[in-house]
Amino acid sequence: MPITPRVRFAPSPTGELHLGGARTALFNFLFARQKGGQFFLRIEDTDSQRSKSEFVDQILYSLEWLGLTWNKPVVYQSRRRDVHHDAVRKLLREEGAYRCFCTVEQLAKERDGASKAKKLYRYSGRCRNISDSELKQRLNKADPFCVRLLIPKGKTKFADSVYGPIEVDHKEIDDFIIQRTDGTPTYNFTVVVDDLEMEINWVIRGEDHLANTPKQIIVYKALGSNPPKFGHLPMILGPNGQRLSKRHGATGIQEYRDMGVLPEGLLNYLALLGWSPGDDREVLSFNQLMKEFSLKKVVKKGAVFDEKKLNWICGQHLSDKKSEELLQGVHALDQEWHKDEQLDYVLNVIEMVKTRAKSLSELVEFSDYFFDDPKSFDEKSIRKRWHDNSVTELMNRYWVSLHDLIKWEADSLEEHLRAFSELEGVSAGKLIHPTRIAISGHGVGPSLFELMSLLGRERVLRRLNYAIDNLPPS
Fold first, then answer.
1. Which residues form the catalytic set?
2. pTM reported for the whole predicted model
């Protein structure tokens, strides 16, 4: 019978939640929830100098915004120091670890020797066999010491769910430190102790942790426990093939939230960084991701971050949303956004522009001219479409003719413009493009006649009149 997964996401609060961390949290969440398992959150805040409470808050808020809810409570590693120390004492009693009194100078001398011999440095193990009398003497003198794990002879083998069988000879691993001279436990030790206490049976994390796994498996066995199953995820790379960083654009989840990106669009894109459903589909709902996710479909190759693809996927999710939902999202960013306007008009505006927007902030930006008359116009479009006074004269005659139009609807507006263009002996485009510039300030946008219908007679005539008086620029 398959074991119900218990997974964890364990960020360090030394910065806000970034794309790589969010992708790891997502894969853990999907894996656990799909199989009826549990998804836990552990804050690894033992670095007191770099860990900040504001980053903890940002991480929690970002996960909640993404909808990656965890099984309570949140575990804080810094509050578990006594548990870590108990585990160290257990290993010392059972001789699975030992106190190392080597000074900084002694270790530096060892490193220099390895460097001169052009060998990879590993601790010599000189404190492994200190006699009981010497140990007692050093402790009585209060000589500073760290605690090192005693690495047994042999090999560590494990089957990674992504990278397959992995084998490491223990000759390649030195007796690494599990507790520093100041009494603080080290990462490779604390994660094992915490995972054991939390009964974690699957560890899904970034490929950069793969080198730590053999060391941690040795710790599990030293503590008399079986290790969990492991799955390591490919790195997220920037367009230049290097590890994704701030120079490649926004990488913090909070930044995407503040830009008005929809969480379901961002989650969809993150899921595709190193995984696919096995066919050509790229736009998937959260329920579809939950249903189809599998570690077997995670690839080994690093996933390249593509901002254009992210924007496209986010745009697909946004355009599929009902206008009422999008208005709620905009009001979450700005609760006063056009609350004084007629609700039907605002919803119709959103419906018209949502297919072009990739985020809620873009939706707001693209909606500006629906509420405020444009006082400036796209220069490139003017040079191309309203280049001299002959256009102004044509548009003035068109403006006059619109006053006689009785039915102000998209079909009748189109019929009228085309009839007028025939009467003037010009192509319809000679009127369509300048009209769009006049009423929106832009050279491109939604269907002109749908736009004119929604804006209404008064707005359109007023804006046309303004443009006729001010274009082309002198």
1. 246
2. 0.92
